[in-house]
Amino acid sequence: MQPNTFWSNRSRPLLAALALVVAVVSLLALPPLRAAADELLSIFRVQKLMFMPVSRERLDQLSKLNFDKDTLFVAKPTVEQSAPPSTVASAEAAAGAIGGAVGQPSAFPSAPLSSEFTVSSPSKMQFQVNVAAARQLLELMGIDDVSIPDALGAAPIAVDVPAFVQAHYHGANYDMTLHQGSSPSVTLPDGVDLSQLGKAALRLLGMPAADAEVASRTINWNNTLLFPFPKDTGNIRQVTVGGENALIVSGGPRGDQHWQLYWQRGDTFYMLQASGALRDNDMVAELVATAESIH
After folding, report:
1. Domain map of the chain by residue range?
2. pTM of structure
3. Closest CA to 178 of 89, 118, 100
4. E-assigned strand segments in the chain
5. Which of the residues 55, 106, 119, 228 could staple to 97 if both were Cys, CB 3.0 to 4.6 A apart?
6. For 197-251, what is each residue's pLDDT tens digit?
7. Could you give the angle at which helices 56-63 and 16-29 cross, rounded to 10 degrees?
8. CB burial class (10 A; 0-12, 13-18, 19+) of residue 235?
9. H or E, element range at 196
């Protein structure tokens, strides 16, 4: 894809079509949020994440539907990677491998005892939306104020994901892994009304019709992906990193907890994973401090 065609009608960042599918699949599958977020990280990188709390009642409604989420796709989505991940000696080597800068933290709970850098090669994903199934889902949820256009299923949606880097840091009382990568290029079928698809996603997540109508026209769907999360759970909290909204997810039994922090800066998306002996509040503070020190 040539740079001058990136913003054409056929090639854009991950838009409302993908937001719709991601929101529906992640909510209906009801996996642990960590697994759902990992999938977002590995496939869908965008310029802006919109963290949206979803009520438990809405989650229950979606989970109890007599609906097979796999029918949302005409065929099973395909993912192709040009080469397996490779380990490199330094951040500089990783930057050379991806052809761009690699951010590194300067603040840790304690000085790292070791570090390792892994480069994941570019990948391509392709899937085709089953419009009839998407419409059935809206009907089952009683949503009749928004429609899914035929154009959405007229051709496959293609996602080109650039190479990304994972940096693993091992310290005396912690392990941290920083994932970072830039936005993909996405090819959508012609004639897709992005604001309508965005409104459909908002309505599925439980936003009232009038509010969804206003929001769908004010959100820039050219660079925004909805990131739904249950709002009434204690292991998910919203924080800020460098003035940007971010989300922390924690889990695991006492003594074996893990944390994940998600945020974006410009067109780079980050996930910082951590595990260790620190208490929850201490680790959250350390995660945010580490994230804010990346340069």
Report:
1. 3-292
2. 0.76
3. 118
4. 11-12, 48-54, 78-81, 86-88, 114-120, 123-127, 157-161, 164-170, 174-182, 185-187, 224-230, 236-241, 244-251, 258-265, 268-276
5. 119
6. 888 888 988 999 999 999 988 887 777 777 777 776 667 888 999 998 898 888 7
7. 80
8. middle
9. helix 194-204
